[in-house]
Specification:
185 residues; alpha/beta; globular
């Protein structure tokens, strides 16, 4: 089985696990993840943070985005541009529009973000060592390849696995945060 086929199979398994979480459990986990992230030194000291708008059964990020804005941080969210993502600065939910595949993203009037201290990224699956399985488009791998700050993946504990098939283009994250643990260097 090729790495691509292994990833596809693992992705289906992990999405089913994530989708099986109840709304109540996801809400409880969201608060725990948010607290863990706020205690991470690299994040708590960051002036500019790159976040994402969660969708479906991903770890909800709305409260994280709103908290970062209320703390006076510069918040950058991704916009899909073909094969890449670019981050743009937002000042609130009113700056978001439906983008590719209906995912909320900064409107065209939002200015490009020149860089971030910390990038918080989504994951379908992740290891304690930071190997990350995404949705399969490679957008975040391409972004992380050129990112010079600290990277953090958010996941539910049911998404943490012993290993993820890795290819040359895959990029690991520095930290992994779940509702139960923080893994990092």
């Amino acid at each position: 089985m090729s790495a691509r086929e292994k990833k596809s199979s693992l992705r289906a398994t992990l999405l089913a696990r994530r989708d099986a979480l109840s709304h109540d459990m996801a809400t409880i986990c969201e608060e725990r993840v948010r607290r863990r992230l706020s205690r991470l030194g690299a994040y708590s000291g960051a002036r500019t943070v790159a976040l994402y708008c969660s969708e479906g059964s991903e770890v909800p990020t709305q409260s994280i985005v709103l908290a970062a804005l209320s703390e006076g941080r510069r918040v950058c969210l991704p916009r899909v541009r073909g094969e890449t993502i670019e981050f743009a600065t937002v000042s609130g939910p009113g700056d978001l529009v439906a983008g590719a595949a209906g995912i909320r993203e900064p409107s065209p009037r939002c200015e490009a973000c020149g860089g971030a201290d910390v990038a918080v990224v989504p994951a379908v699956g992740v290891t304690r060592e930071g190997a990350r399985l995404g949705r399969g488009g490679g957008h975040y791998d391409r972004f992380l390849a050129g990112f010079g700050g600290v990277s953090v993946a958010l996941a539910f504990s049911v998404q943490v696995v012993r290993s993820v098939p890795e290819e040359a283009h895959d990029r690991r994250v520095d930290w992994v945060i779940t509702e139960d643990a923080t893994f990092g260097p």
